[in-house]
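thought: fold this chain, then report.
action: predict
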Amino acid sequence: MELVKPEIGLVFWMLLAFMLLLFVLRKFAWKPIMGMLHDREDSIDEALNMANKAREEMKELKFSNETLLHQAKEERDSILREARKIKDSIIEESKLKAKEEAQRIVEAAKESIQYEKLSAMTELKNQIAQLSIEIAEKVIMKELSEPEKQKALIETLMKDIKLN
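observation:
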């Protein structure tokens, strides 16, 4: 029961031990402990400030990234529009060139057909003329095989020459 009712000697020695402990702590441990607590407080404040700075930088970076993304999308859309225009112009130009080439080929074919037609007609006329000459030659040979008919033909030709 001494703990419930302490005696004066026990209180004195406990008080003396406590004071001695406070003196030793104050002399050797209090400043380093307080310095560490201040350092810890400063490092926590610094970490909080850095976290706030990092948060602000992240906001700025997010905004910057969104801006860059928006610009990249606009640039991509612009490039795609330009590519479509170029594609359409190339297709149109190719169609025109193909049409011109087809027209040129048709014209060349028409000229070739016309030339072949004229050549065939000339050849046909030459063959007809050759056949006509051969037929006339045979008819004349048959008609002029008798001397009396030869004389009659010569007289007829002479009359024609005198009339002209």
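thought: worth noting. Helices lie at 8-143, 147-163.
final: tokens above.
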